[in-house]
Design goal:
Length: 340
């Protein structure tokens, strides 16, 4: 047999080397030795997309915050002002934690609690509010209930905020002071309930606090002759009846005033009172409480956005202290206004 020529041997070996090189290239192109890709949750910007600050589309300079009456019995919605900002939710929580800067009201949140963060998650209407560990020091159920309720009411007063999830140091906790916090909390059905039975039907109205300085929303039982099918009328009758004797609240409409008629058409409620409605005779505080309690009580109903007040069936230009009532009145922009 003829021996292989040296050139043939070299050519064969070259082909082997070439095949091996091609195999290496194939393996490398398959990614077997490529650098591992980061996990999805570690991708830059992924957390920022899911967790985002609660910002308004425009700057606002006021918000509704809930404090306590001086006796600690009732939550009071208060309009507070601040420098215009889009971080309205953050400012609202900070104002709530700081407490009212005015006599006649008390803070509802425990001392020492600070805000760590407030944010949304994508495609949700739940506000996450992260507070410091001092919140866990609350052991009294009544204090915890009022504090959490005030937080939920304050935040769900903002647009597009339907639920509130309270966190402590970034973590969900099962409860604080006996109040369950393991799931997002919806806005409470009532703010201050004076109903005596769980299944009792009621209506929300606004009375004065004990010092007659602040309007307090309370849910009271339907008065005699009122029905749940006509809640606006029931609300006015409840206003005229005044607060329950043991409530420590003050009526806003003069005793003896009667509702002569109520008509609701195209968003306008025309309320006809008897002449006793001006029995207070004067006093700007009494007049403001009369009008504001009526306006806030009636405009809570979606079918009403304006109120025309009549006295004995007639329009009057002014009330005794000079408040104009010759034209329909809209819901005031501010409730229990506090300028900080």
């Amino acid at each position: 047999m003829k021996a292989d020529h040296p050139g043939n041997w070299c050519w064969g070996w070259s082909r082997v080397v070439l095949v091996l090189l091609l195999l290496v290239l194939v393996v490398l192109s398959g990614g077997c030795f490529s650098k591992p890709k980061p996990a999805t949750q570690d991708l830059p910007g992924k957390t920022a997309k899911e967790r985002r600050p609660l910002l308004y589309d425009r700057k606002l300079s006021q918000v509704l915050v809930y404090y306590l009456t001086q006796d600690g019995a009732y939550l009071v919605p208060v309009t507070v002002t601040f420098n215009p900002t889009r971080e309205v939710a953050k400012v609202a929580v900070e104002k709530l934690l700081a407490g009212p800067q005015v006599d006649g009201l008390k803070g509802v949140m425990p001392d020492g609690v600070k805000l760590k963060d407030v944010y949304l998650l994508d495609n949700q209407q739940t506000v996450y509010v992260d507070l410091t560990k001092e919140l866990l020091q609350v052991k009294d159920n009544g204090q915890a209930e009022r504090a959490i309720k005030a937080m939920v009411l304050t935040l769900t007063s903002l647009d597009n905020a339907r639920y509130v999830q309270v966190l402590v140091e970034g973590q969900a906790v099962p409860e604080v002071g006996g109040v369950k916090l393991d799931t997002p909390l919806p806005r409470p059905a009532t703010i201050n309930s004076l109903l005596k039975k769980d299944n009792q039907q009621g209506v929300q109205v606004y009375f004065n606090d004990a010092s007659a300085n602040f309007l307090v929303p309370v849910t009271v039982a339907l008065p005699p002759g009122a029905t749940g099918s006509d809640l606006p009328r029931a609300a006015i009758l409840a206003l005229l009846a005044g607060p329950p004797p043991d409530s420590r609240l003050v009526r806003t409409i003069w005793p003896g005033t009667r509702l002569l008629d109520l008509k609701i058409e195209h968003g306008l409620a025309t309320v006809n009172f008897s002449r006793e409605v001006t029995g207070y005779g004067g006093g700007s505080a009494a007049e403001t409480a009369l009008l504001n309690s009526l306006l806030f009580t009636l405009t809570q109903f979606p079918e009403i956005d304006r109120v025309q007040l009549l006295i004995e069936g007639q329009k009057r230009e002014y009330l005794p202290e000079g408040s104009a009532i010759d034209k329909p009145l809209s819901r005031p922009e501010q409730l229990n206004f506090l300028k900080h």
